[in-house]
Structure formats: C-alpha cells, structure tokens
Design a protein that fits this description.
This protein has about 900 residues and is an alpha+beta fold. Helix content is about 25%, strand content about 25%. It has an 11-stranded mixed beta sheet with strand order 1-2-4-3-7-8-10-11-12-13-27, sandwiched between helices. A 6-stranded mixed beta sheet has the order 33-34-35-30-36-37, sandwiched between helices. The chain has a 5-stranded antiparallel beta sheet with strand order 9-22-18-25-15, with no helix packed on it. Mean pLDDT is about 80; it is low at about 1-35, about 355-360, about 420-430, about 570-600 and about 910-920.
Length: about 900
Amino acid sequence: MPSRLPRRFLALIVVLVVAVVGVVVAVAVQGSGSSTGAAAERRLTLDVPAAPGSADTVTLDATMYTPATTPAPAVLLAHGFGGSKDSVSAQARQLAADGFVVLAWSARGFGASTGQIGVNAPDAEVADGRALVDYLATQPEVQLDGPGDPRVGVAGASYGGALALSLAGTDPRIDADVAAITWNDLGQALLPDLAAAAPVDATTPAAGATGSDGVLKRSWAGIFFASGASAAGVCGRFTQQVCAGYLDASQSGRPSAALLALLRANSPTSTNAGVRAPTLLLQGEQDTLFGLDQADANARQIAAAGAPVTVSWFAGGHDAGGTNPDADAQVEAFLRFHLLGQGTDPGTGFRYEVAGSVSSRGQVRTRSVQAAAYPGLDGSATRTRTVQLDGASRPVLRPPGASPSAISTIPGLGSALGALASSGLGGLANLDIPGQVATFSTAPLTERFTVTGSPRVAITITDLTGGGEAVLFAKLYDVAADGTKTLPGGGVSAFRVTGLTAATPTTVEVTLPGIVRPVEAGHTLQLAVSTTDQAYAVPLTPAAFTLGLARDGLVLPVVDGTAATSSTVPLAPLLGIGALVLVVAGLALGLRLRRRGSDEVDPALVDTPLVVRGLAKSYADGFRAVDGVDLEVLHGQVLGLLGPNGAGKTTTLRMLMGLISPTEGEIRVFGHRISAGSPVLSRLGSFVEGSGFLPHLTGTANLELYWAATGRPHEDAHLEEALAIAGLGSAVERKVRSYSQGMRQRLAIAQAMLGLPDLLVLDEPTNGLDPPQIRAMRGVLRDYAATGRTVLVSSHLLSEVEQTCSHVVVMHKGKVVAAGTVADIVSADGRVVLRVSDPDRAVEVLRALDGVGEVSLAEPGDGSPSGAVQADLADVPAAEAVRVLVGAGFAVSAVAPRNRLEDVFLALVDNDTTGSGTRDE
C-alpha cells in the first residue's frame, strides 16, 4: 500500500477549496472597454411576495443605472453565487455607458436583500426576475415594445446565468438572453453520473450521459453551501428544503430522489422549452464545476424550442477566474445587436478558443476557431475520430476509508495547476495512487489534431469483493514524448455502477469531460480510471474491481472551422490565487521528492536565525547559479541581499524556503538543516513570489484565509500584531480590489508577518511603490526587526537598502563578494566627508596629519553638505582626525563616509554582468 498523504497537505486542499468561493462568487458578465460617460444611479428597494399567495414579502436591494439618452432598452444584470449587486456594479456602469438602462439587484439571501436562498427556485428567485421586468415596464427611461412589455435583455454568469435562462424560459418579454459558465441541470452538475448502459446519442460535441444515481462533487458542493452559511444555524441563509437535501447528500454521497427533483426544478432544463429570445451561451473550457456538457444540453434544448442559439467556448471558467476579455466583448456585441440594433448579427454559429503555450511575459496564447453552426443543432452530426487503446484488463482497489485519495484538480485552481505542469512541474496538477488506478494508452499519434468536446469510451467492470456497486472516476491525459502528463481542463467523469457481479463483466459507456485540446504528433493519450478522487464523495468501504475495455476505441469529437482571431490571455488571472497555488506546489513537491537527509539540528546554532555554509546550486546544463555562498544572519538584523541580475539571489532564497534543493552545502534555520517541508520553516515568513490576494475579499479575510491554509491554530496568527506593524489601519476591512499598489504591498508584508515569524524573507518588497510608500515600508521593516526578530531583504534599490538595512551581503556570479554592516562596507576605504567651520584651513591641517592621503574641498553639487572637506583617512581612525581638528579650534558638525552603497556595489561588480546568466533576477 502507498503511504498516507500528509495531513497538512490534505488540510490545505480543504482550505483551498473553501478559498475558491471567491472564484465562484466573483464571476459575472464583465464589461469591456472604458465608459464613455457617467450614468445616473438610483438605489431601489422592491418588495416581492415571499412565496406564491403569501402575505409576507421579501425586500430586494437594487440599483438602476440610466444612460444619457432615454428611453433606452434595459438589461437585467444578475450576479454570481455569494455575490450581490455590488459584484456587477462595474459591468452595470459600462453597459449604461453603452446606452442601456441597467437594473442590478441582490438576489434573495445575498447582500442587503432579505429572504432565504432557494437556488433559483421558480416561485422565488425566478419570480423575482419577472417582478423586475414588471418594474422596468413602468419606468419612463425604459423603451417599450408594448404596454407592460419593456425591451429588455437578461445576462448573468454562473448562478446569475442559470437565472437568466430560467427567466427567459418563463417570461416571453425577454428579448435577449446571455448565460455564461452556468448549469443546465444542477443535480447532474453537482452529483454527476457520466456513464450509461448504452451509447449516448452524441450528435453534438459535448453531449454527456445523465444518470440518476450520481456521485456528490463534494468540494464544489461544499463551497456553495459554505458561501451561503451564516451564524444563524446549520442551514444558514438556505431554505429548509435546499439545506435538508444537501445535508443528506453530504452524508450519503449520493442524491435522494427528492433532491434531484428539487435541483432539476430549479434549473434551466425545466424551462428551456419556453425560451424564445435569441440566446448566447458562453461556457469555459477550464471549468470543473459546470463543464461543457452543461452548455451542450442548454443549446440542444433551446434550439429544439425554436430559439436562435449562439454557442461560444472560451479559455476561462470557474477554474480560471471567470470570463475573459474576448468573451466579454461577445456579450456586449450580442446585446448591442439584439437590443439596440447596432453592429453585426452574431448569428447562430459556434466559436471555440484553443489555448496554446505560455509566453515569456506570462500570457497564454489562444486562437479562436469559428464554425458555421454548433454541430448537431443544424441537422449535422459532430465528426469523430477513433484511436485505439491497449486493452488488457487491470485490477484496482479502493482502500479502507478511501485514503489516500487521488488528486485530479483543486476546484478553482485547475488552470493554475495545469499552467505549473505545462511549465515543467508536470505531475503537480494530479496525483494518481498506484493500485487504485487502471490506465490504458494509445500508441504515439502520427498527426496533430484538436479534440473538441467530450471523448467517449466503453469499459467493463467486474466486482471482486461482492459489494455489487462501484464508484469510479475517469479522465484523459495528454502525455508528451518526455512523459509529461497534462489533464486538459482538469476534468474528471464520476459515475456509479450498480448490479455488479464477479461472474459477468458489466459494460458501461463513459462520457469523459468536454475539452478543447490540440494533441501533438508523437504524444499519446492515456485513459485513467480510478477508485478514488479527493474532490468527490467516495464510499469508505474497501473494494476491489477488474477494469477493462469493452472496445479498444477511444472516440474523440473534432469540430472543423476557420481561424477567427489570435490573442493572449494574461496568466495572472488564470492563476487567480497565486500565492496559495505556490503553497500547493511546494507541498506537492514535498510529496514527490525525498528529503535530503533528516531534520538534523546543530545545538550550537539553535539561537542563530540563519547560517549558510558552502551553498551551491548547479543545473543539468552546467550552469552554476550559486557557488560556495557563506553567510550568517543574527537576531535584530535587517540584512540586504544585493546583486545584479543572475547573481544567484533568488536561487538562494528558493533554497532557503525549501522549494529547491542545493547541489552542495547546507542552510540552517535556528540550527535545523533545511529541506523540502522542514518543520522549522514554520518559523519563517516570506514574500517572494507575489501575494495573489483574492480581490473580492477584505484584507482581513485574505489574511485569515492564508493563515488557515497553514493548518495552524487561529490564535497563533497574531493577526492584530502583524496588522499593527504593517500600519494599514481601517483599510484592512475594505476589499482588496480597492487597494493601491502600496496598500497591497503592505498587506503582503502583513501576510508574511502572520504568526510573527522569527525570520522574515522578502523579495523586492518596495516594487511599484512611490517615494512616500517606500519610506513607510522602510519603517515597517525597521519596526519589525526592533522586536528582536530578523529580516532578510533582496532588492535592486540600493539607496533603500542603505537607509533600511543594518547589514549587507553582495553577491556576484553566484558568489558573495562583500558582507558586513552597511557602515563598514561604505567606509571600508577610509574616505570620509567632514563638515567643519573653516573648510580651507581644515584642508591644510588634515594634509599635515601622518597617514592621511588626498584631502580637498568637497565639490559643489556632488551631494556633499555645504562647507565640507573630503579626505582619504586611509588607516587613520575618523575619531583621531576629529580630535586633531577640534584641538586646532575647528567646529566639526558632521562626519560621514564619502561613498554611497551604490558606489561600493558598482566597484564590487565592476559594472560587469556579462556571463552572469539570466536565470535569476
């Protein structure tokens, strides 16, 4: 049996799952471009019936945005789950500037609206939408198509997208409908069962099987429930019906018939037959919550009802920060044409984005492909190609307690982990447990093609332990020639199969997650079927099965089209919570790499914050980034680590943090030798790779979330002390999206200070700050060191290091070329500037002093004080020179080194960075 995954790693995954509530609640239809004029804004409170026939009312908090020219068409703008009308305020202002009346509101149970969350219940949230249309029909600013009938569109993403579809399906007054990254059947989305006894009628590219005994998508379902919780009790703000259904499923791992009926009734699948308005369906290709199969089902149902449907798959989704600028532009163009009659008819075509490589500037290159129609909606069928898999059967087991469990992705972070894998950290995005997974591979492919939609495969299952039931997870890897595996989209197909026997294999047709993936010639495709997955509810009883292939073929959808555009998507939004992703990466590396020796302790160094001895790091190509570094950092010091690009600074810091291992030498923190995952690293706080704050959360919430990810007790965070040192004041209760760059940097320092670490390591903490902010940061670092702790700062700003740090280490070409106090280094050659009462006569006195070299008046304009003498004292102590001058009747008001740190630094590195490489900045 493989060893159990470390508890800290599993705990971190749980915390990260909760963390990405922000990804869910923040998504909304984004505006593009800049506003052309300010819109008038009016806050409204609208009372709607709490339930049909009820005398009680629910108050909806809303804001209406009015353009400069009225009457005008209106847009109802719905927010994502956990958000409010404020979540879409920027988008509302943009649409108003484009000429629309916009009504944004907080749904029941969110923001300042009262009532309970019914998850888009037909007689609650959807009925509220119809009441809002009624209200718009009474407003003089809104253009009417007839009495009581405003010209109106509805748009939303995720939770808001489903509401938009359900409203369009129940109110014929809706003239345009936009739904992004949303569901078709919430029961099938949160409790999927993607296997069927017979082949799926897959004329469309991402049609999936829809079973009735699904597997709870525990991580994503928990995120939804947690974001609707409150201190009012277990059910929080949810209706009793929704809460009871979730609680039952969370314990059993499978849905009740009542829960499936409720979720289906609250889903567009129940209302799509009534949609008559032109509809734009935007779905993300990086979305483990609502996959491409959900948009596929919506498209089929709406088209069958006779409404025009435009389908667009884009390089985004719940795992990639929501929508992207290209998708946003499509929304704006769609609404302009169908409500304002402006622009080009978007038609009923199909567009998808193909993500490529990551550029050196951190952008994902994409190209858009345009097809005339979404296959299957126009009488055609999706073209497929079949590749052969090796067919030998494999035994698999499910361990007691389903632990350890495989890791396919982490909700909200799928694209981030995939980006890490694509950049050379293959395997961090997934972890299959030997013995629990059966794999079937193709031969190397002979030509390049793009998989566009949901692959299908038929497998056989034999029960070896007599339980009669299997819960399994299937996924498709793209395996490069060097063995690097990528899980496109991060998706997994969960399915439950009952009625199994040991005598006769049971055959099921499995629909794999919908993807858009260019597969290169020479790559192989690998089908993996596992008994466990961390993101799902897995039975805890042990079981064993034999898995095989009912047919050797893997059926892959291919959609032909013409290139539409080529663009880049910034990687930073895809990473979303970059700092936490790096924590995951570091822990995953710790799982895969053996430690270099034990956590041995040198008793003589337990009170020394940092000792580095003979440290070296070489790479396979012979590049030696760090070459024999020795340094020591003591309590209360602020040490500046200086050096030109390629000097080895960042490589040294990464080795200090246990992210990479040294080739030679050692690093000891409080006597403990550092290796990946060393416990003593809990005494180190760092800000090296960027903060990655969640913009929709407050500063305090970001810090609390980060601390929770460490798995340490809340009381150990010392949150108040860290915030006091950072000096953010009441701004910590504001959302980070409103922060200036300086405030974000200060919050990042506070994050590094959580737990009041004994050693604080910061890489370029003043980047992007203006002079007043830099001065404030200088005080923050000095104050922290004044508590008796130690600060290590890597920086390019030499003047700031000189004013902030007590000690300096200068590196060049991987070596330490100078180390000591700032004062000692800048005065090492004995050159000083003295401010005296009679400079001309003082020059003569100093020249007569034995051992003194060149003496002259300070040149005007060179930065020296007025009335100053500069002298090379060589081996004569400065105190002796002052004594002689005072004895001769001079008033000496100041003595300072002649050099600045910049002068010394340039002299040490000879202004020469050639040959130093560019690996380390």
